[in-house]
Amino acid sequence: MTKGLIGLDWGSTQLRAYRYDDQGQVLEKRALPYGIRHLPEGGFPAAFAQAVEHWPELPVLACGMVGSRHGWLEVPYLDTPTSVDRLAGALTALNAAGRTLHLVPGLRDPSRPDVMRGEETQVVGVLAQAPDVARRGCLLLPGTHSKWVSLRDGHVTGFATVMTGELFALLTQHSILGAALPPAVDDEQAFRRGVDAARESGAAGALSRLFSARSLMLDGSLPPASVTDYLSGLLIGDELRIAVAAGWADASSSIHMVGEGALCDRYLRAASIFGLTIHQAPDATTSHGLWRIADAAGLISTQATA
Amino acid sequence: MTKGLIGLDWGSTQLRAYRYDDQGQVLEKRALPYGIRHLPEGGFPAAFAQAVEHWPELPVLACGMVGSRHGWLEVPYLDTPTSVDRLAGALTALNAAGRTLHLVPGLRDPSRPDVMRGEETQVVGVLAQAPDVARRGCLLLPGTHSKWVSLRDGHVTGFATVMTGELFALLTQHSILGAALPPAVDDEQAFRRGVDAARESGAAGALSRLFSARSLMLDGSLPPASVTDYLSGLLIGDELRIAVAAGWADASSSIHMVGEGALCDRYLRAASIFGLTIHQAPDATTSHGLWRIADAAGLISTQATA
Predict the structure, then answer these.
(1) Does one domain contain both B93 and B209?
(2) Name one Pfam family in it (chains A, B) (predicted).
(3) Cis ω for the linkage preceding A224 (within 30 of 0)
(4) Which residues are B280's β-sheet partners?
(5) Which residues does chain A have within 8 Å of residue B116's beta carbon, measured at their own beta carbons?
(6) In A, which residues are within 8 Å of B218 by CB distance?
(7) Could you tell me which residues are beta bridge partners of residue A136?
(8) Alpha helices, DSSP H only, in B101-255?
């Protein structure tokens, strides 16, 4: 019988499927536009059937919004502090078309409270690949809702969300700051100026400077096409200012960032202005995390003995 | 010949017209839906003609967005620190349908920079009626773009904008925090909880807690219909936190607030949680301010001798 695993990274806008061999190597990947907000006719079962079509009858592990209130089946959050083993022991099973799907729970930090769903699997992916970060680390997952995660001795001890990406989108698309602007141009100087403004805002914070995106433009010292980059710098800079003020990160500790591309590059540039060090965390964290959780849950060996 | 004044409070969404007698008493008021974004056919001249129809040929003084870049005629900002006399000496004249309109400049605080247009006339209205505040005061004008104004010896020494009202609208109407909520109900406890969260956020600020509007709701400890009041408390609370952190206000100084109604009532309740004292500033500030500026500019006596 074939050994291995099928992993699903099932978020709001996309469904990614991975087929692994029995050593955890990804043999095949699929990306479907069937996030939980954009399901095909037939809903979750139809999307699932398409994602695994012609693949062998392997155990299936899924993470992400598929386990949320508006997903296929709501899976309760697991409280921090927690480990990979506790996460693996808290899977919820769901039967569909003769297969059993196992769903990864999201995490909840009861001290705030704060929640994540999907990112916990990325965090596990880092833990699986970077033991030094797992011992004592600060993990940053930038995005629509950036997550700052504290790790200690292989446990997720807590985390917090900053809505930087969503605020940026709201302000550029719907607020007076983004109204009637010409198409944005890349302006590194404007970006750095925004980061500086956030840093200089101190305990008041960047909300006390938000309107400067308009007043500097009216003043003639910020070109209208550069307002977007200024706002990006102001909000990313404020996220870093918050991380320091709240004690999530400091100049003596390294921040490990999950992700790549233009957005992560902005965080790197902003961090250097703050005197913070950001390292790139290992890549392909979700597929690694799914494998690691399935392994800890005994899903792979269970199948082998079936 | 008739003596007196016509004053126009001409903003983005409304045009208010006041006819004064020669002592500054308002004899007649008109409100038209012709803000500069919603002009009738015929544009500014037609809106103006309608606002002053059948009124005597009095001097006309206008403040607000009518003097902005997208207004009838752009009037340059006047830098702080400034006084009523300097403001009155910086009017710009515009000829329309045989009448002369005098436009009040907005103010610019070059130290930030920050700008206001329209609120400067409200500030003058307070100065004209409350000499104690004019000597040394902190003026708060809550709204879409709240203004915090420092007064000293009858001068506006500086000011800052916090976009509290606009952020609240963006977050409730367009963000995930406001998505799929039932109609909001009044929940004083949720409002106070939001204010508390802002206060407790300390130097990190309320952006570090923004996502709690969702996580508390998912957690079951904040009813979905109360999320709006929680967000209102969080944002108004953060504005007060910023004011203290930035040194615009402190527990030993009184804050004088311009405005009335439900929004101002929220600021009063939030201030009491912060241990700050807010006094209600004198009412009808724009109409008083227009008269005071016209008087300082000699517009009323000029007309009398014409």
Answers:
(1) no
(2) DGOK
(3) no
(4) B257
(5) none
(6) 69, 115
(7) A152
(8) 119-129, 131-135, 164-174, 188-200, 212-218, 227-245
CB atoms within 10 A of CB B301: 14
* Touching B: A residues 186-205, CB under 8 Å: 202-205
Nearest to B208 among A69, A202, A242 (CB): A242
Name the residue facing A238 among B114, B207, B238 (closest C-beta). Answer: B207
Q: List, in sequence order, every residue forming a beta bridge with A114; answer none if it has no partner.
A: A109
Q: State how far the Cα of A75 lies from the Cα of A90, in Å rounded to an integer.
A: 9
Segments forming the whole domain that contains residue B78 = 5-130+284-305
CATH code of the domain in which B242 resides: 3.30.420.310
Instruction: Give contacts of B175 with chain A, Cβ < 8 Å.
Output: 163, 166, 170
- On whether both B263 and B174 belong to a single domain, the answer is yes
If asked whether residues B17 and B113 sit together in one domain, one would say yes
Q: Look at chain A and report how many structural domains it folds into.
A: 2
From chain B, the residues in CB contact with A246 under 8 A are 204, 208
ipTM reported for the complex, 2 dp: 0.93
pLDDT 10s digit of each residue in chain A, 306 long?
678 999 999 999 999 999 999 999 999 999 999 999 999 999 999 999 999 999 999 999 999 999 999 999 999 999 999 999 999 999 999 998 788 999 999 999 999 999 999 999 999 999 888 888 888 889 999 999 999 999 999 999 999 999 999 999 999 999 999 998 999 999 999 999 999 999 999 999 999 999 999 999 999 999 999 999 999 999 999 999 999 999 998 777 789 999 889 999 999 999 999 999 999 988 879 999 999 999 999 999 754 444
What does the block give as tokens for A116? 């994540």
Q: Are residues B301 and B256 in the same domain?
A: no
Residue B28: alpha-carbon gap to chain centroid: 23
Could you check whether the bond before residue A81 is cis, i.e. omega within 30 degrees of 0? yes
Burial readout A212-222 (b: 16 or more C-beta within 10 A, e: otherwise): bbbbbbbbeeb
What is the per-residue pLDDT across A213-231, written as a single tens digit (0 to 9) for each? 999 999 999 999 999 999 9
Helix (H) or strand (E) run with residue A87 in it: helix A84-88
User: For residue B154, is it within any domain?
Assistant: no
- Name the residue among B171, B215, B245 with its Cβ closest to that of A203: B245
Rounded to whole angstroms, the maximal C-alpha distance in chain B is: 72
Same domain, A126 and A16: yes
Biggest CA pair distance of chain A: 72
Secondary structure E strands in chain A: 5-10, 15-20, 26-32, 60-63, 78-79, 92-96, 99-103, 107-109, 114-116, 136-141, 146-152, 155-162, 254-257, 277-280
Q: Is residue B113 part of a domain?
A: yes
B105 to chain A: which residues are within 8 Å by CB?
Answer: none
Subunit contact B242:A218, Cβ cutoff 8 A: no
Contact call for B162 and A245, based on CB within 8 A: no
More reliable by pLDDT, B185 or B3: B185
B293 Cβ contact list (under 8 Å, min separation 6): B61, B63, B84, B87, B88, B91, B104, B121, B124
